[in-house]
Amino acid sequence: MAPARTEREVLLATRGLTKEFRGFQAVRGVDLDIERGTVQALVGPNGAGKTTLFNLLTGFLTPTSGTITLEGRDITGQQPEQIAHLGVARSFQITSLFDQLTALEHLELALASPTGLGRRFWQSERRLATFHGRADELLDQVGMAHPAHRPAGQFAYGQKRALELALALALDPKLLLLDEPTAGMGLEDVDRTIELVRRIATGRTVVLVDHNMHVVGSLADRVTVLQQGEILAEGTYDEVRTNPDVVTAYLGQPHA
Amino acid sequence: MTEQSAPTAQLEQTAEVAPARRSTVRWVLLAIGLVAAIALPWFVYPPVAMDIAAWALFAISVDLLLGYTGLLSFGHAAFWGSSAYVTGLIAIHVGVPFPVAILGGMLFAMLIAVPIGYLSVRRTGIYFAMVTLAFAQMIYFVANQWHSLTGGENGLQGIPRSFFGIEQVETDAFYFYYAAVGLILLGAWAAWRILHSPFGRVLVAIRDNPARARALGYDVERYKVVVFVLSAGLAGLAGGVFSISHGFASLQELAWTTSGKVVLPVLGGIGTLWGGPVGAALVVLLEDKLATIGFDGIGIITGSIFIVIVLLFRRGLWGTARTVLQGLADRRHRAPRD
Question: Is residue B230 in a domain?
Answer without folding.
Answer: yes
